[in-house]
Design brief:
Elements: H1 10-24, E1 31-32, E2 47-48, H2 56-68, H3 77-95, H4 98-109, H5 116-132, H6 142-151, H7 156-173, H8 178-188, H9 196-223, H10 234-240, H11 251-269
Antiparallel strand pairs: 1-2
Length: 270
């Protein structure tokens, strides 16, 4: 019986990287540059230095030093704790299916004017990307949007564009995304709110461009479905993607959404 290959765990990958880096300290010649008062490298000042070869003990204690720090290395514990807490919070939010129900409610309220959903949903998905790095959490929305887009004469690429482009441009701007801006701010020792104005400007521009791109393609398909990039699959897709019932939000889910929004407001102001 052939054993099924498994993807290595995160710990296996991390320890493998540490081991390879330790091995390279015995192979790659060590060197350094002189730096000026602004901590910029001075060209032409490279010189070799004594190798700091790492042994087995160094490999084993590397994760501990990385978390707690030493006289030469700053501690990663504050950043790790920040990611752990935010990640747990988002996990609880996703478990309540509040975001899914919220999107479902919006879809339900816009029956008969589904094309306007392109603008509304792309803004919402972009907000998800820019606030908490929304990405794989969107998988549940594809089965919801695909039938809707086909029912109004559009195609699967419009549904994919709404979700994928929406979240991607949001992540690119990352106004308060704790896994990008938050970590970078912690490392730089500044508040996540510092420089947020320009990040918001970037988010508005990227989101607007993304919406115009998807809306333009949708308008072209609406006038002539044969111009769809996936027109060859249209008949089969119409059979595969049937309309599904959408969820409506309950009181508890509305409270979770309010808490979710409030958390990021506090994070910006803190």
């Amino acid at each position: 019986m052939v054993k099924k290959k498994k993807v290595p765990s995160s710990y296996t990958i991390l320890f493998s990287i540490i081991f390879v880096m330790a091995l390279l300290t015995w192979i790659v010649p060590a060197g350094a540059y002189q730096v000026d008062d602004a901590n910029q490298l001075i060209p032409g000042t490279y010189h070799t230095i004594e190798q700091n070869q790492q042994g087995i003990w160094d490999v084993l204690k590397a994760p501990v030093i990385g978390m707690l720090g030493d006289e030469e290395t700053s501690a990663a514990m504050p950043v790790s704790l920040f990611i752990l807490v935010i990640g747990g919070f988002l996990g609880v939010v996703n478990a309540t299916r509040s975001l899914d129900a919220g999107i479902g409610s919006i879809v339900e309220k816009h029956k008969g004017k589904e094309k306007s959903l392109i603008i509304i949903l792309m803004i919402l998905f972009s907000l998800g990307g820019t606030t908490f790095g929304m990405s794989e959490e969107t998988l549940a929305f594809y089965p919801l949007l695909l039938p809707i887009m086909y029912s109004i004469g559009l195609d699967s690429l419009v549904a994919v564009g709404i979700i994928l482009i929406g979240t991607t441009v949001g992540v690119l701007a990352s106004t308060v995304n704790p896994f990008a801006t938050g970590v970078a701010s912690q490392a730089a020792g500044i508040s996540p709110g510092q420089g947020i104005f320009w990040r918001i400007v970037l988010w508005v521009i990227l989101t607007a461009v993304g919406i115009m791109y998807v809306y333009s393609y949708a308008s072209k398909i609406e006038k002539d479905t044969s111009k769809s990039l996936v027109y060859d699959h249209r008949e089969q897709d119409l059979k595969d993607f049937q309309m599904v019932e959408t969820e409506s939000m309950n009181k508890n889910q509305k409270k979770v959404i309010s808490l979710f929004i409030g958390t990021f407001i506090i994070m910006i102001l803190a």
